[in-house]
TrEMBL record:
The lineage of its organism: Bacteria, Bacillati, Actinomycetota, Actinomycetes, Propionibacteriales. Residues 63-212 form the RecA family profile domain. SUPFAM superfamilies: P-loop containing nucleoside triphosphate hydrolases, Ribosomal protein S5 domain 2-like. ATP binds at residues 92-99. Keywords: ATP-binding, DNA damage, DNA repair, DNA-binding, Hydrolase, Metal-binding, Nucleotide-binding, Stress response, Zinc, Zinc-finger. This is DNA repair protein RadA. Residues 348-474 are annotated as: Lon-protease-like. Belongs to the RecA family. RadA subfamily. It comes from Nocardioides koreensis. The gene is radA.
Amino acid sequence: MPKPSRPAFRCSECGWETAKWVGRCGECQAWGSVAEAAAPATRAAAAPVTRPAVPIGHVSVEDSTFRSSGVPELDRVLGGGLVPGAAILLAGEPGVGKSTLLLEVAAQTARYQRRTLYVTGEESASQVRLRADRTGGVHDELFLAAETDLGAVLTHIEQVRPTLLVVDSVQTIGASGVEGVPGGVTQVREVAAALVRVAKTRNITTVMVGHVTKDGSIAGPRVLEHVVDVVLHFEGDRNSRFRMVRAMKNRFGPIDEVGCFDLSSEGISAVTDPTGLFVENHHAHVPGTCVAVTMEGRRPLLAEVQALATPTASERPRRTTSGLDGSRVAMVLAVLQQHCGIRLHAHDVFASTVGGARLSEPASDLAVAVSLASATTGRPVPAGVVAMGEIGLAGELRRVRDLPQRIAEAARLGFRVAVVPMEPGERVPGNLRPVDHVHPVPNIDGMRVVSVPDIAAALQMLKLARAEQGPRPV
C-alpha cells in the first residue's frame, strides 16, 4: 500500500517547502510566512489536444519574424526586434528609466500603425499621459489602461486586441481567487503564466516590467525567468544619464549584446557611439591616465582610467576605487611593487574611470597598471596609446579575447599605438624603444601594435619604469 502523502508547508514569500511547520522560513528568513499548502491534485488524465502534432518542417515561421521596435539599440539587444508571441521581462532598479523606455517603445510601435496596449499598475493614467506629452509619445493607436486586477487586464486585451502589450509591472497585478498579496510568489507566478498564455495563443508581443531586490536579482520566484522568452536587465548609475540594456536570456538571438541609451528630461534616446562618454579630452598630457579597451557584449568601448598616488603618514594607506574592481586594483599594486619596483605602501591610491564606466573585465589590468605607474613617476603616457591585457601574479601579460575588434575601434577613434600581450611562441624583442621614438608601422587598421611579454617590459617601453625597477633581492 502506498503511504499517504503528508501535508507540506510552503512559504508565501519565496515558495520554500518543508515537511513540518516552522516559524521562520529557511530560505528567505521571513517570519510567519510558512503555512500549510493545499493538498496535491489527483493525477492528470488524457485530454483533447488543441492542435495535432505536425512535422517540424511543416511549421510556418512567417508569423514569428522580427518586427522593429522603433528603438535601434533595443533591436540590437533583442537580435533584430520584437517577435510576435514573445514574452519579454525587463528588470531594473527603481528610477533607472524602465517605464520611460517602454513608453517610447509603445509609442514607436503605434506610429507603425500597430495597436499597442500599455497597462500601468504603478501610476495613474494621467501620470503616464504627462510623461507621454513630455517625450512626444501621444498617438491614436496607443491605448492606456490603469489596472491592478488580472481579470480586468485580460478584458482589456480582448477589447483592444493589441499587437504589443506592456505591463508595468507584473508585481503590481493581482489575480482574484489566488492566495497571497500582489507581488508574492503565488500571485506573480499566476499572473506571469496567464500573460504568457495569452501572448502565445493570440500572438501578442508582451513586455513585462519586473522589480529587483536589493542585491540586483529579479524579485519573485525563479520560475518567472523560465516562463518568459527574453530577460533584459536595465542598469545605470543614478549620477549619470548613461543607461545600458543587457540580455541575460534570449531565445531569439544572442545574449552578449548591449544597448546604450541616454536618459534625459525629454525622454530616452539611443547612443550609437558611447565611447566619447568615457574618454576625457585633456588640453595637455597629464600623468596618471591611460585608455583601456573593454568589451561590452560584442561592442568594444574605450574607457579612460585615472589614478592618483599621494604620500601619507597613516599606517594604513587608503585604497579607493570607483568603477573598478577593488580586489584587482590591489592585485595590480602588489605586482607593481614586487616586479616593477614601484613602492606604494606609503601612498594613498585613488583609481577611477571617466563618465561612470564600470570596468570589470581582466583585460583592463594593463591600463590600470600603466595609469598607476604614470601617477607615481609623474610622467604622462605618450599620446595616442591604448593598453589592454590581463596581468598575472608573476607579472606576465595574458591574452585577451576579440583583440582585432578592440584594435579596430581604437584606430577608428584616432589612436596610433596599441600595447597588447605577446602571443605564445612570439620572439621577445632585444630592446624595447619608447613608442614616441618609433614611427608608426601599419599593422592593424593603420595602428602600430606593440606586443610585450610582461608588465615590466610595458612600463619600460612607455618610459614609465623607475631606475630601481626589478624585484627585491631575496
